[in-house]
Amino acid sequence: FTEVCNMLGGKNQNLSYSSNDVAWSSLDSNILATAATNGVVSVWDLSRFGQKKQLHVYNEHERTAHTVGFDIHDPHILVSGSQDGTIKQFDIRNEKSSYTYYSNSESVRDVKFSPHMQYVISAVSENGTVQLWDLRKGDKSILQFTAHSGPVYTCDWHPTKNWLATGSRDKQIKIWNMDGKASLEHTIHTIAVVGRVKWRPDRT
């Protein structure tokens, strides 16, 4: 491995907090975002030099930021999920968040954009629930269901089918068919807590 870029040159020198998540923009190979334990969401542009690499420092979450993710349809839209129970939407052309969505849990552990439904994200929480949000309708989630008996730490959309995988502290991975109301397709029992689940990328 060869180091390509060192992020310590950011304009915010207080980078001593650890990162919980890193996400690349799927539409711009130079842009990435990070979620930090102090609640800060940062956006970086690797094509820039020195302190200019750090485009934005969003210090809006009140507690740890667990997850970040870019919209796969719009390269300017970013979402984050936090221990404070909120999901924030950012347009990275602006200095502040565009909208805040309030979950019914004290902690949002993962958020993912659906590749099948534009404007729709999934969010999983420590109270065992999954929520779907339409980013154009921020007053409440468009779907909510209890997925696990313990905290849900991770979720991921299937690249071609409208399936959502979830992983939990209850040592289970569940596959949900999201056509209409969520229906359980498969359950995988594991020997340990599931911290992260990922579908194999589509290679067709």
TrEMBL record:
Origin: domain of life: Eukaryota
Any Gene Ontology biological process: cellular response to amino acid starvation
Swiss-Prot/TrEMBL keywords: Metal-binding, Repeat, WD repeat, Zinc, Zinc-finger
UniProt-listed InterPro entries: WD40/YVTN_repeat-like_dom_sf (IPR015943), WD40_PAC1 (IPR020472), WD40_repeat_CS (IPR019775), WD40_repeat_dom_sf (IPR036322), WD40_rpt (IPR001680), WDR24 (IPR037590)
SUPFAM superfamilies per record: WD40 repeat-like
Cellular component terms per the entry's GO annotation: cytosol; GATOR2 complex; vacuolar membrane
Name listed for the protein in its UniProt record: GATOR2 complex protein WDR24
Lineage of source species: Eukaryota, Metazoa, Ecdysozoa, Arthropoda, Hexapoda
